[in-house]
Specification:
Oligomer: single chain
Order of helices and strands: EEEEEEEEEEE
Largest sheet: 7 strands, mixed
């Protein structure tokens, strides 16, 4: 049974950092490209970052380039999203994803 479990969300002030984690199980993690998406209040879910199965290639939404970093540890079956210089507009529920499978999401709120 495929499981994606996100953690690490919370309430932070503008300019602060958070690191999200997504623990995967039930499939061969090292063979699968992974993504982070987010859904802001009242908006559609959108791609934030993507990483290939070997971690060699990453891509980012323009809105987070230079601030967010996606990475993975295939030995731990975990993908991460390091988020720096957070802004109020980063407030959203963040989801871990690979084709056909979503995690339950973790809330990130950036507010002073």
């Amino acid at each position: 049974q495929v499981q994606l479990v996100e953690s690490g969300g919370g309430l932070v002030q503008p300019g602060e950092s958070l690191r999200l984690s997504c623990a995967a199980s039930g499939f061969t993690f090292s063979r699968v490209a992974m993504s982070w998406y987010r859904r802001a209040p009242g908006k559609e879910r959108r791609l934030v970052a993507h990483i290939t199965s070997d971690g060699g290639t990453t891509t980012y939404a323009d809105s987070v380039k230079g601030r967010f970093t996606i990475s993975r540890d295939n030995a731990k079956n975990t993908v991460y999203l390091q988020m720096n210089s957070l802004k109020p507009e980063d407030t959203a529920v963040y989801y871990c994803y690979f084709p056909g499978n979503w995690g339950q999401g973790t809330q990130v709120t950036v507010s002073s």
